[in-house]
Design goal:
The chain is α/β, with parallel strands linked by helices. It has helices at 17-26, 44-57, 72-76, 106-121, 143-156, 174-184, 206-218; strands at residues 2-3, 6-12, 31-38, 65-69, 125-127, 164-166. Strands 1, 2, 3, 4, 5 and 6 form a 6-stranded mixed beta sheet that branches. α1 (17-26) crosses α6 (174-184). The chain starts with a strand and ends in a 13-residue tail after the last helix.
Length: 231
């Protein structure tokens, strides 16, 4: 499928800053369809609002927006993001190993949904805003994971589908993403990064800490309100 001679690409948009900037960036090579996935995360409602705000900002019509629900990840549990019995820890950016906020193999589920949709609408590129170098250490954000997924896609889709998953920001630092977003006029105030639910971002979880550090390193004010901003 093409629109006005341009190919359709599917961008996975969580409502966070990385996927928001990535979606804006990817409009340069594709007309986007946007995929959002509810998986029983604590901030599901807030993230969905941010997804639609991104879609409105990019002027993506409702016919090219898909919201999928895989609430079974909440029933599987094993993550502080989906299991209310596991507390979201305060930030420890020097931590070694995989943190308790990792949702087991989540990104494989997200990519699989995108591939199914891509086969139906004729999209060739699937974009995901994974960041490996400056993240929480999730194994499904590593470049080799997406290399393996592309081999699986090649073997598991119709001959000639040409579908590939791209992680264009995987080697970037978050401060680079902030600077890129600023240069493109991305509305960061409409994004949400916090792992905890609330009217304001908590400011002290890993995701808030990474975001705050990125904005500080970039020398750009973060427009989100926070309950706590560490010194």
């Amino acid at each position: 499928m093409t629109t006005g001679g341009r190919p359709i690409g599917i961008a996975l948009v969580s409502g966070g800053m990385d996927s928001m900037v990535m979606a804006e960036f990817c409009t340069r090579e594709s007309d986007l369809a946007l995929l959002h996935v509810n998986y029983g995360q604590r901030t599901e409602a807030k993230e969905l609002l941010c997804f639609h705000a991104v879609a409105e900002h990019l002027k993506v019509p409702s016919s090219r927006r898909l919201v999928a629900d895989i609430g079974y990840l909440k029933r599987i549990g094993g993550s502080a993001l989906t299991d209310s019995g596991i507390d979201v820890p305060n930030a420890d950016l020097g931590r070694v190993g995989v943190p308790v906020t990792y949702v087991p193999f989540r990104n494989a589920h997200l990519v699989a949904i995108a591939v199914s949709w891509a086969e139906v609408i004729g999209a060739k590129n699937i974009y995901i805003g994974a960041v490996a170098a400056d993240s929480s250490g999730y194994p499904d954000c590593r470049p080799e994971f997406y290399e393996a997924m592309n081999e699986t896609i090649r073997r598991g889709t119709k001959d000639g589908s040409g579908i590939v998953v791209k992680a264009p920001f995987v080697h970037l630092l978050k401060k680079d993403i902030v600077l890129m977003g600023k240069s493109m006029g991305v509305p960061f105030e409409q994004s949400w990064s916090c792992y905890r639910e609330g009217e304001k971002a908590c400011g002290v979880c890993d995701s808030c800490a990474l975001r705050l550090r990125a904005f500080a390193d970039a020398g750009v004010p973060d427009p989100l309100p926070y309950e706590t901003v560490p010194d």
